[in-house]
Structure formats: C-alpha cells, structure tokens
C-alpha cells in the first residue's frame, strides 16, 4: 500500500482533474430533471411557449458542457490509470530481473505472467475507471438524496426504505460473484499454463504422440473454466431480476404516491416527473454499490499479490565489504564448498584451484552436481559452506555486474531470443562486425549463418525454432566468444555444450579456443572434450571421487579409466567395422 501511494502521488493531478470534471458534470446533470419540470409545469400546462427556447437552450448548454467535461474526465482518468499501471509494471519487471534463481525455482511462469498482466490490469481498471466512477456514484446519491428530501421528505423517506433491500441484494450478488471470480482467475492461470507448456513443448508432444493426452488436459482445464462461467451466470440470473423488481417497485411507489399528491394538488406533474428522475439517480449507485466494492476488493487482492513479489529479496550486490576489481585475471579457487538447494547436500566439500588461462574439466553422472558448481561461480546461488575466490577475492565481495561480465557462460539449455541472429550474439553490447565474424568462425557457425536467408539479420523463431540443435549451440558459443573478444570476459564456462556437436566440429572449436587466453571450465561427458584440461575432476553424488590430468587418471585405472575404455573401445570398434 505504501508503494501504491508513490504511484498515486506521481499521477495525483490526473486523478484530481478527472474527479473535478466528474463532479462538475454530475452537478450539471442535476439541472436536467428540474428543466423537465419547468417544461411540463410552465410551458406545457401554462401554455407559455416563450419560455421554451430558453429552457431548451439551457438544456443544450448543459448537454454540450457534459460532453466536454465527459471527454476530459475520461482523458484524465485513463491517463492517470494507465501511467500508474505503466510505472508499476516497469518497477515490477525491474524487480523480477533482480531476483535470484532460487525465486524462479519456486514460482511458475504462468503465475508470474498473471501478476504482470492480469493483476496490474485490475489495478489499472480501478484507477483508470473504478475510483472516479465510485466517487461519481457517491455524489449522485448524496446530491440527489438532498434534492429529493427538499422536494418531498415524506415520499423520500418511503422510497428510501426500499434502498437497503437493493443494497442487500447487490451485496449478496457481489459476495458470491467475488468468490467465483477468484476461482475463474486462478483457473485462467492454469488454462494459460497448460496451453503455454503444450505449445512450448510441441515437439516433445508430437514425437511422443501425446497430442490426445494434451488435448484431454486442455479440455479438462477449459471445461472447468466453462463450468465456473456458467456458475457465475447463474448467480447473476438469481439476483438481477430481484434487483430489477425492487427498482421497479420504487418507481411504481413514486408514481403511485406521487400521483396521489398530484391529485391532491400537493405536487405538480412536472415536479413528480423531476422527482422520479432523481429517484433513479439514487437507485443506480446502490445497485452498482456491490460491484464497486467488489472491484475495490479485487484491486486490493491484486495489490497484495504484487506486494508479495516486491517483498522477495533481490540478489545482494555484495554481501561482505566490497572490493573493487578493475580487471579480473581469471583465477578461480573453491575452498571446501558445500551446497544444498533444499535439505540434501548436492555438493560436498569441493575444492580446486584453476590458475588464469588454465582449464578445469568436470565429469560425472547426470545429477552429480556439475552445473551447480558453475552456478555458484556466477553467484546464482550462495554456497552453504566454504568459500569461492576469484583472483584471491571472495566472490561475495565483488559486485555482481563485474563478476558476471567477466564470465562467458554457455549453459546446457540453449536459449535464443525471438530476434535477429546478430542481436542474439551481441545481447545488447556494442560489437564490431569483424569481432562477430571472428567469433562465428571460431564457433564454426560462420558458414551456416551466411547461408541463412538474411544472414546475421535473420530472425530466429522463439527459442531458436528453425535451427538445428547444433546450430543453436554454436550460436550460444559465439555469444560467449564475443564477450571474450571484447575483453569483458576472462572466464569461459562450457556446460555440456559439445553434446550437440559432431566430433569434427568439437575438435575444431577446441583448437580455436586454445588461442583465447581464458580460464576455462568445461563440463563434458566425452573424454575427447576433457583430455587436454590441466585438471579433470570426477564428481559422484556431489563429491570429488577422482582428480588429476588425463594421463594420471588413466594410470589410476579407476572410474575415468572405465569411461575412457567405454568410449574409446566403442570408437575403435566402430572404426574397425566401418
Ligand atoms: N534448482 C534446483 N532446485 C532443486 N534441486 C536442484 C536444482 N537444480 C539441480 N538440482 C538437483 O541438484 C542435483 C545436481 O544437479 P546439477 O544440475 O548440478 O547436476 P549435473 O551434474 O549438472 O547434471 P547433468 O549432467 O544432468 O546436467 C540434482 O540432484 C538435481 O536434481
């Protein structure tokens, strides 16, 4: 709520202007029944046609002013609400960018999407329409009530006895509707997530013949939302006729009792017509009262959900006292590092030392903790125990920007943005053409990029649709090499990147990488990818079980030797049989 005050303050002038226009316009509205009264009583009944042009002119003036005021009211209201939603959305998105991996491990994308879109839309709707509408209806009710009392307080008291009934029905309707609205909104998130996951994973769906299952899943979610919509329609059907019934009774009561007053010559016909005009002005705000309260409640609920996201702690730039590092050389030291995501340790007592320009290779079964080690180097997670040093400085003392700028990371999961090949390589940096070309050549991607319909300017589809696995992989390697070439990265991390490449391409890239003076951490399953490393560590269940150079590990005749035998044995066998 405190946060909301900031956005309201920024846009207060728009809201005040909108409220001013609304109140001014509705004050003018109050004249209309009065003019009708004068037309009936003075012009028609007294046959005084001289007065008519003046009254019609006055009515026209009111109508015209109403149009102008209505325009400005809408304009200021929309501008204020839209700017408020815009500022909130930008701040929320910026905040999300600062949250750690651990946050994204917990939350699902569909839920975040609905915070960014639907919840902010709720707030936008309340401020861009609802609040001014609420104030407008409140004023209609108050002013019209005062006028009604001044015309005939006895009749007004009788009519007003019906108002609580309308209010009660409106309240009941919105209470039931509110519950169902919440369910519809949650179900909407589930429907979106199902559709989004199915479309993103359409290749898996098709190749495993899961279409029928996916259609069934979507059908089920869609059916639930349909049933909730029907339930909501039934609520409306239950309450609206009653509300109309009591509204009509209030009008019938006004006409009947007012008619008696007219017959008894205690009220003129014009006044009765004007009176019923004012009655409808008090009935509508009551009818809409429940809806307005519900809208405000939904806005508060959305604000609370968004506030929960804002309360998530961003990654800390530095945890201990900051150490300014101008240029990183690339020395990496792990000192007894242990880590767990939840309850179980996935890394236990890991220690190694990689000097600038050296290569460390990490091997191990899937799930043994290889990716976790490199995630810790970029401080995407914090170690539970132990210390990680870069150039002798605890990484918690280096600001995140410097640290991550110095790491060129090629992750296991390839991610390409729906943008041009060039942008996917540059990622917002200023990079000269010859640097891009060199990086493409070294990643063995130049030829295939040249063959793309528009070369570097070709737009690759969402997550690189339209490119082969190996082509996508080579673009992500190019991206990392560009970082090294422009001098911002001194450490290169390759997380199982060669798995999608053929042996020849892998060898070519390995040779090209030798020319880069970078500290390299290579995660791989193939002996061919790691054998030239200065040190190879073999992980098993988060622990280092073997370590040393290729030759040393072979001489141990342990696990590494077994892997070697398996891979090279097969390779030799294949060569022999071809
Ligand atoms: N974000 C996470 N939250 C919880 N547990 C995780 C998370 N990421 C990984 N793990 C668990 O930590 C362990 C180590 O995972 P990690 O990704 O480091 O293994 P890996 O050796 O890189 O595996 P692979 O060769 O399959 O890539 C696994 O048991 C995995 O299930």
Automatic annotation (TrEMBL):
It comes from the Bacteria. One of its GO terms (molecular function) is ATP binding. InterPro entries: AAA+_ATPase, ABC1_TM_dom, ABC1_TM_sf, ABC_transporter-like_ATP-bd, P-loop_NTPase, Type_1_exporter. GO terms for biological process: transmembrane transport. SMART domains: AAA. The chain crosses the membrane at residues 12-31, 51-72, 123-147, 153-171, 245-264. Residues 332-566 form the ABC transporter domain. Its main location: membrane. PROSITE patterns: ABC_TM1F, ABC_TRANSPORTER_2. The keyword Glycoprotein does not apply. It is found in: Cell membrane. Keywords: ATP-binding, Cell membrane, Membrane, Nucleotide-binding, Transmembrane, Transmembrane helix, Transport. One of its GO terms (cellular component) is plasma membrane. It is a multi-pass membrane protein. It holds the Pfam family ABC_membrane. The keyword Protein transport does not apply. This is ABC transporter related. Residues 18-298 form the ABC transmembrane type-1 domain.
């Amino acid at each position: 709520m405190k946060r909301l005050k900031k956005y309201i303050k920024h846009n207060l002038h728009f809201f005040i202007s909108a409220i001013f226009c609304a109140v001014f316009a509705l004050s003018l509205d109050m004249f209309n029944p009065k003019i009708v009264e004068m037309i009936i009583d003075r012009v028609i009944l007294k046959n005084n046609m001289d007065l008519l042009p003046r009254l019609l002119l006055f009515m026209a003036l009111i109508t015209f002013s109403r149009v102008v005021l209505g325009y400005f009211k809408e304009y200021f209201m929309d501008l204020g609400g839209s700017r408020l939603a815009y500022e909130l959305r930008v701040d929320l998105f910026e905040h999300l960018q600062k949250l750690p991996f651990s946050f994204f491990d917990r939350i699902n994308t569909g839920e975040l999407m609905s915070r960014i879109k639907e919840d902010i839309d709720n707030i936008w709707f309340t401020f861009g329409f609802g609040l001014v509408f609420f104030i407008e209806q409140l004023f209609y009710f108050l002013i019209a009530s005062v006028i009604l009392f001044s015309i005939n307080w006895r009749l007004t008291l009788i009519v007003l006895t019906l108002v609580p009934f309308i209010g009660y029905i409106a309240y009941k309707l919105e209470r039931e509707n509110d519950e169902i609205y919440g369910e519809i909104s949650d179900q909407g998130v589930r429907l979106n997530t199902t559709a989004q996951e199915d479309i993103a994973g359409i290749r898996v769906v098709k190749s495993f013949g899961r279409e029928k299952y996916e259609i069934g899943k979507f059908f089920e979610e869609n059916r639930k939302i349909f049933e909730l919509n029907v339930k909501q329609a039934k609520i409306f059907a239950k309450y609206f006729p009653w509300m109309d019934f009591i509204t009509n009774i209030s009008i019938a009561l006004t006409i009947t009792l007012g008619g008696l007053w007219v017959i008894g010559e205690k009220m003129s016909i014009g006044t009765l017509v004007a009176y019923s005009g004012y009655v409808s002005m008090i009935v509508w705000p009551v009818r809409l009262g429940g809806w307005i309260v519900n809208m405000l409640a939904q806005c508060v609920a959305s604000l609370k959900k968004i506030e929960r996201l804002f309360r998530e702690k961003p990654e800390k730039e530095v945890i201990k006292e900051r150490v300014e590092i101008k240029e990183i050389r690339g020395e990496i030291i792990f000192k007894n590092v242990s880590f767990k995501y939840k309850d179980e340790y996935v890394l236990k007592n890991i220690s190694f030392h990689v000097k600038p320009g050296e290569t460390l290779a990490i091997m191990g079964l899937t799930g043994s903790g290889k990716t976790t080690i490199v995630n810790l180097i970029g401080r995407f997670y914090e170690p539970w125990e132990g210390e990680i040093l870069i150039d002798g400085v605890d990484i918690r003392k280096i600001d995140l920007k410097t640290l991550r700028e110095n790491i060129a990371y090629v992750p296991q999961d390839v991610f390409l943005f729906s943008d041009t090949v060039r942008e996917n390589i540059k990622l917002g940096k200023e990079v000269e053409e010859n640097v891009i070309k060199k990086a493409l050549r070294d990643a063995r991607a130049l030829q295939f990029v040249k063959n793309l319909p528009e070369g570097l300017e070709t737009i690759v589809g969402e997550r690189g649709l339209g490119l082969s696995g190996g082509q996508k992989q080579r673009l992500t390697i190019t991206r990392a090499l560009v970082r090294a070439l422009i001098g911002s990265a001194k450490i290169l991390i390759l997380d199982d990147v060669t798995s999608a490449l053929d042996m020849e391409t892998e060898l070519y890239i390995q040779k090209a990488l030798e020319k880069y003076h970078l500290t390299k951490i290579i995660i791989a399953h193939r002996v061919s990818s790691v054998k030239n490393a200065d040190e190879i560590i073999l992980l098993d269940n988060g622990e280092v079980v073997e370590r040393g150079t290729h030759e040393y590990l072979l001489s141990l005749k342990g696990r590494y030797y077994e892997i070697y035998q398996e891979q090279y044995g097969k390779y030799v066998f294949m060569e022999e049989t071809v």
